[in-house]
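Z., the sequence and structure:
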Amino acid sequence: MLKKRHIYRTAIYLAGLATASAGTVTAVQSQLGASPITSMANSISLVSGVRLGTCTIFIFAVFIMIQIVLQYPKIKFLWLSFQLLSSFIFGLYVNFFKSLLTNFIPQSYIGQLAAMAVSIVMMSFGLVVFMSADIAPMPPEGMIMVIAEKLGLAFHNVKITVDCLGVSLACLITFVGLGAVTGIREGTVISAFMIGKCFALFSKYLKPAIDRLCFKEKPENRTAVNPI
């Protein structure tokens, strides 16, 4: 039974990563701006020509390095190892869906808004699914958790600050590299606001079902991150 639950957790985690990565690519293809969490990776990709998923892996690796510096000398190697693995999986998913959706570029503004709405739903759904599997957070969330703990700040306050810094750096990267701010538009702001709302809605219905399927003990009796 224990092994069966682990298989469920792994499958759900991978499915969540796939859904979130598909939503990430859909946001980029909508032409209304990347989501805050991938804005830096998208900007580096636009400037360098390197694939979006590969740039995402690089940025996530930087986030892991920041965690190592902040955690030293009490570094949580297992926790970080799962984050690194999830980064590679997420990046490969992003490259796959980017290739799959290369020709998907909405021509009308209504079509762009529709694509952005779909991306928000997919990213929110995917985040709830893979986070409910309770294996490890993605590096951005992991870094925010470490910063919040280190500085004694609320998670959501640190997240807002990190998102704002990320978008600002993304703007700077494309301005310096391309001569104009590219990849950051109204969709970036809409995503920042709506993903949290949709996340809360999906969590209300999905998380209890995933808990019943994957865990024998009650959620309050488990640690926040419980690697297999």
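The two ends are 14 Å apart (CA to CA). Residues 223-228 have pLDDT under 50 and may be disordered.

Let me know what you think.
H.
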